[in-house]
Each structure stands twice: as C-alpha cells, then as structure tokens.
Amino acid sequence: MNNNRSIVHMDLDTFFVSCERLLDSRLNGKPVLIGGTSDRGVVASCSYEARKFGIHSAMPMRMAKQLCPEAIVLRGNSGIYTKFSNDVTEVIKESVPLYEKTSIDEFYLDLTGMDKFFGCHKLASELRQRIIRETGLPISFGLSLNKTVSKIATGEAKPNNEIRIISGDEKPFLAPLSVKKIPMVGNVTYKALCDLGVKRIKTVQDMPMELMHKVLGKNGLSIWKKANGIDNSPVIQYHERKSISTERTFGQDTTDMHKLKGLVIAMAENLAFQLRRGHKLTACITFKIRYSDFQTYTQQQRIPYSAMDYNIIPVVLDLFKKLYNRRLLVRLIGVKFSHLVEGGHQVNLFEDNEMHLNLANAMDKMRKRYGDRVVMSAAGMEAKTISRWNPFNGEPPPLLANRHQ
After folding, report:
1. Which one of the listed residues 20, 49, 100, 106 is annotated catalytic?
2. Residues 367-404: pLDDT tens digits?
3. For residues 246, 252, 256 and 259, what is the CA-based torsion angle, rounded to 10 degrees?
4. What domains does the chain contain, in order, with CATH numbers?
5. Residues 6 or more apart in contact with residue 308 via CB below 8 angstroms
6. What pTM value is reported for the model?
7. Span 182-217, pLDDT tens digits
8. Is 24 annotated as a binding residue?
9. Is 105 annotated as ligand-binding?
10. Is 106 a catalytic residue?
C-alpha cells in the first residue's frame, strides 16, 4: 500500500444551476431550483441561495416553493449539462493521465508521483483555475492520500474553493465533522448511529472496530475505516467506452417485421432497466443488424444523458428503421448503450412528468422482485428470452448479453 498517494476529488458546485447561470446571468445570486416543475416534481439541484431556506435536493418541489416563494424554478435540461460535463472532462483529460469520472459532475484524479515535477497541490490548483477559466463553471476540490478523505474535504471546501489535508492529519480533520459526511452514510444509517448517540466522526474513531461491526455488520466496518481516514480503493481509469449491450441471433433467419420490432423494444427496455438499477445514464446508443449473407451494419446516435425508456426507445427504433432492409433475411440484431456515467438518480429527478418516473419506478420494483420478464410494454411482450443479467454486479454475462469495456 502506497502511503504517499495524492488523490484529488473534484466536484462542480451546484452543477445544474451553474450551467443555467452561464446561459442566463440574470440567475446569478438568486435562489434557483431545478427539477420537475409540476406540483408533483422533485428538486434535482438548488443554488446556495436556496439552501439558506432549508431546501435540499430530492425535496418535493411544492415544499421547496413554500420555503422560498421567490425561488426561480427551472426544468432540467440534460442536453446542456451533458455538453458542459464533457467540456470539463476534456480539460481534465488533457492535464491528468489517470482520472475517474464517477458522475456527471464529479471526478477523482490520481496525482501520485507528480510531486517530483511540481507539487500535486499546485498542479490541482492550476487545473481548477483552468477549468473555471475555460468552462466558466465553479468547481471545488479536496486533496489527500485517499478517495474518502478527499471527497469529504471537497464538501468542506465548497462553494468554489479547495482544501488540502496533509498526510497524517486525516483523523483530526475528520473528527469534528458529522457522521453524515461519510460518503456511505445515508439517512437510515445516520438514524441508526444517532440512536447509538453517535453524531460526530470522532465518536466512531474512539469506538473499537469490533463494536461497530457488531452493531452495523459489514457496513459498520467500512464506516469505521472511513471515519479513521482509511481507504485503499484505487482511482480507476475512466474510459468513454464503458458500455452494456445485448444481442440476439435467430435460430432461423427472419423477415418478420413485427417480431423484430417487438424484440428491439424489449432489448432497449431491458438495458434501460439495467441502467436505472445501476444508477447509470447513457449518452450513446448503437444498433446493429446482421443479414443472412453475414453483411453487418451498425449505426449510433448520441443522446443527452438518460436512462428513461421514453427517451431511449424512440432512438433505438429510429436506428432500426434506418438500417432495416425488409427484403433481406435477418440473422442477428443487437443494441448497445455506451458512454455510461453515474448520476442516474439526479438526472431522472427532472422527469417533470411524474407519471413517467412513477411508472418506471413501479415497473423496476416489480422486475427486481419477480424477474425482468414480469412487466414490459405490450410491444416488447413477444421477446421472451431477453435474459436477466445485472451488468453492474461483476457477474459474467450469459450468452445473450455481452459487456464491452
């Protein structure tokens, strides 16, 4: 284990709001809410001015408006945010050999060994200034010897600032903070810890590891380690190529348009469900068709980050129509989603149409409980054999689904 690692966590401040402010400076300094704008919508992102009123993300929009009636409410625009996210990624890519993009607005950089040249902190600082200069977006970072401490440090640095935790200072830095600041502590765990009288990270540091294990199981061990500033997880090189795909070869070559279309929809639905289950979004859809003479054609289409059926299925069908020659016998069809990033939950909160969001959630719950095949749109019904496979749990895929890294 290398104790002199230099890991930077960079996070774009109130990313969606910052993008909107670049496009309309009248939003500067005002309380801004982004999310579903209907009565039943949810806040996906809010400006610091809005947070002063007690507003936070995932709060019902109706409640947020009551807390701050003068807030400006905007519908999220995935296309704009995708573009800005890619702009920031480009700047990082040019400056840092090893980086991981963990969501639409968040990055880890491994600068270990770079200090031989010019100091990691200086490098990170200059990169941050360059991002602000070139994209116009505010961004904060934390620098320490591991991911957990750096991520927590970024939270303390915000808005639009930077913090460095010198090696050896991890425990005293973490001690006074709320246990809520530990990345894996959600509301349920927080409540469990509060019931134990544990509110500050220092209390966890002072507890024996065994006690945390006894009370919270395996989770307790991880929390104890993170509270003590221990985290060996590596920065995993980010590739745009992360993808999930599924393809189907027919026993008999077919020209049955109805059957083909049903199968295409079922494949797209299944992959979109896998995305939502892994909290991922896709920005690129590829369709592939092979005819009985083995001529193979593929076409892809970039889309704004999404994991929702009604954004994805029309694109897949459109590609199918473009490539399908009804005079030829079809041997194989395939669908692939690539350019995957985390952040599905955040972006899906823009679904103003809560009906779509609720429908997707309800269908996903059923699928998790009873298997992928229990619910699907009528058009996808005929495709009985699209497999159950979760590409995000590390298991090898069955024959139907191929995962390309």
Report:
1. 106
2. 666 665 555 555 555 454 444 444 444 444 444 333 33
3. -40
4. 1-139 (3.40.1170.60), 168-238 (1.10.150.20), 243-402 (3.30.1490.100)
5. 272, 348, 351, 356, 360
6. 0.72
7. 998 988 889 989 998 999 999 999 999 999 999 888
8. no
9. yes
10. yes
